[in-house]
Amino acid sequence: MAPDDVTSDDETPARPGQGGLALVSTPIGNLGDFSDRAVATLSGADLVLCEDTRVTARLLASRAITVRTEPLHDHNEQQRIPALIAQLERGRRIAIVSDAGTPLLSDPGFRLVRAAIAADIPVTAVPGPNAAITALTLSGLPPHPFLFSGFLPPRTAARREALGRLRAAEQAGLSATLIWHEAPHRLDAMLADLADIFGADRPAAVARELTKRFEEVRRGPAGTLAAWYAQNAARGEITVLLGPPAEDDSGADDLDSRLRAALASLSVKDAAALVAGAVNLPRRTVYARALELARERDQP
Asked: Is pTM, for the whole model, over 0.90?
């Protein structure tokens, strides 16, 4: 960054007296990570929007911050937007926090931010703790590129389909470290699905209770981690990471070659059904690729 691009403390975008929307990152477990700028921004806000007012109240009390708080969550965000935009247009200073970490990432706020941008209202961010990035730096897996996908669907069929789409993307050329959050009671099943769909030997890591007293990062092949957590129940906040495929991964060539061979004698539907079982991918994902290959073949 060039010297002229550096912003000094007294020139930060969230100056007292200036209205606008501020996205404020909060600690993911260690109060020592609550930055001075985050404290100043929340102290100067007219309103703080949060997932759970009780959780945020404890955080604010730790720094003797007195400010009005109101809930903003998936069930009320859309209906609250018009009134909140009206307040911002009158010069009110509103901050958004999540229960822990960086707002919007697996948390509410995106729709309000998009509405504020559309209304030409100043939007700024106070960066800070983030579980996905912290886990990535501790995992020992390639740090970039990476793909963060939030939480997977809780139901097995939907989860496997979502993972299957990512595996199909790898077979089309995607090579990145994959990151998810997961609930403790679903971790063993999720890891078993990772091992099944991506391969038991794929490098992976499970980060638990980051920045807290019982912080733990367990690293190893996906199959080994699946076996461990099948026998050892997990607790706390969890982030799961899966390393990129090996350079000699022939998945893409294998999928296309199988489909081309099947399409030589079968319909698109039947070819997709046959190959889906062989490559362990969702049928609709394989069907979409079969359609693409059939169109390429039939083009003059």
From this structure: no
